[in-house]
């Protein structure tokens, strides 16, 4: 969710990483709109996982994260 109205010369594009591999490039949050980033294909089972955010190409603002929810389906 973008928490401020961006000026015409500002942009926030976020690259999301899972275990040091690109999960999604160029995610652009919408102003005051909660959004979901998901993967319909199962990810490999690992004993630990790391997530990361970085400024996407062309972004003038740093990534901003105000909440995260991660879950795993169990058979």
Summary of the model, kept short:
With 75 residues, this protein is mostly beta strands. The protein has strands spanning 14-18, 21-27, 51-55.
List the helices and strands and how they pair.
Elements: E1 14-18, E2 21-27, E3 51-55
Antiparallel strand pairs: 1-2, 1-3
Description of the structure:
This protein is mostly beta strands and 75 residues long. The protein has one domain (1-69). 0% of the residues lie in helices and 23% in strands. The protein is built from no helices and 3 strands. It has strands at 14-18, 21-27, 51-55. It has a 3-stranded antiparallel beta sheet with strand order 2-1-3, with no helix packed on it. The protein is elongated and about 45 Å long. The mean pLDDT is 87.
Short descriptors:
mainly beta; 75 residues; 3-stranded antiparallel sheet
